[in-house]
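Appendix B, Record 12. Input sequence as logged:
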Amino acid sequence: MNNYNSTDDVLKSFYAKYSQDHANLDLIVEVLNYVQGYSQPGTILVLLPAYSEVVELRDMIIASNSSLKNKLDVHTLHGHLFPNDFKKIFFPAPANKRKVILATNIAETSISFDDVICVIDSGLFRDRENDVIFTNPKKTQWISKASAAQRVMHVRNGGIVFHLYPRSTLDGLQEYPVPEITRDSLIDVCLYARLIIPEDMRLPQFFCSLPDGPPTTAVHQAIEILESIDAFDSQSKVTDVGLRLVDLSVEPRLGKILLVGVGLRCLDPVLTIICCLARDDPFITPASPDERKVAIMRRYELAPDYLSDHLALLKAYHLWEHFQQCFPQIKMGGTLIKMSPVIIISI
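Logged structural output:
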């Protein structure tokens, strides 16, 4: 057994062993085991970086060999939740069970609960970086001090909060969240800005004048993208193509695809693909680990000869459309449907 002289020694050993760039799900499970013995009734809210950690922790609890899975009523809260599952979050837990909500930062300010007696805060969130690739990757980052304070407010009087990061990390956090303009893609922002700022003002100059402007490199990269799709000319002025893209309610690169589709007389399939790309991934991951594996395989089988995500989206939409035609009596209201036991799609 290791001998530690102080609590600081224990913490230093722990943080040297576990990366602070990722949520420590094993530690969260241990905390859940500890809180489960808490005498006060109420809900446990676990705040995780993103959807993948929510699903992974849920599966860990379900697969646990301990008595934990039999004592917890586990719910998930994220941006891809089915409406019926969302309603269940607010139902009381069954007798002899404690409700646990595994949530992304959507629970930070968008939703409030009146029965939370414990918050387990990972201190992390995953958000878009300000870059210019087609699907912006998300990077795990530390929350701000304001976000940490907001998370504490979920706990009712007499509750308890576990911050899974040291005091030194909390003291070093930014005071407030980074402005959205520094996190999201600037491609459409640059296009619209060019129409409203003075003609003699360059875009980098405009963004530098903002109180919290984005990195200059991100601005230049966005301008290069707009020039490559003919939305800007060599002087970063809006072209006729750019003016048409402004009228379209989609991201400029998707708009250019749409215009090309019109020119090539293949608008119908291109429009369907663009509608899918313009929103979150329409493929919803099933809750069951076994179904999830099969669903991934079925997704690849949608376009096996081409290995194309775009054609897979198109085929999935055609399957959904065929389902509607074959079963018109089924009211799909919003719509979320299940096409076969393993392909779940949201339209």
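The two ends are 56 Å apart (CA to CA).
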